[in-house]
What we know:
The chain is an all-alpha fold. It is about 70% helix and about 0% strand. It has 2 domains: about 5-55, Flagellar transcriptional activator FlhD (Flagellar transcriptional activator fold, Orthogonal Bundle), CATH 1.10.4000.10; about 65-100, no CATH class. The longest helix has 24 residues, at about 5-25.
Amino acid sequence: MGRDTHRLIREMNLSYLLLIQRLLIEDKATGMSSIGVSSEVADLLVGLSLKEIARLASVSQILSSFRFHDHTVLSALTHSQVGSAVTARASTYEPVVQSA
Length: 100
C-alpha cells in the first residue's frame, strides 16, 4: 500500500472515530443504532483518549463499513435514487406513525 493511500485511510479513520465518539456521547442509543455496536463497544469507544483514537486510526485498514443488509437500500443507491434509499433506511429503523 502506498504512503498516500495509508495517509488517506488514517485521515478517514480519524474522522470516523471522532464522529462516532461524539455521536455516542451526545445520544448513546442513537449512536449505537447508527453504527451498529453493542453497549459495551460504545462504552469502550467513548472512553478512548485522543492518543488512543489516533493510534487506532493509524491501522492500515478502513474501520468504517457500509451496512447494506436491505436489498431496497442497495438497489436504490445503485440506481441513483438516493431519496428512496434514505426513506427505505429510515423506515427500517423507525416506525412510521400515521395520523388518523
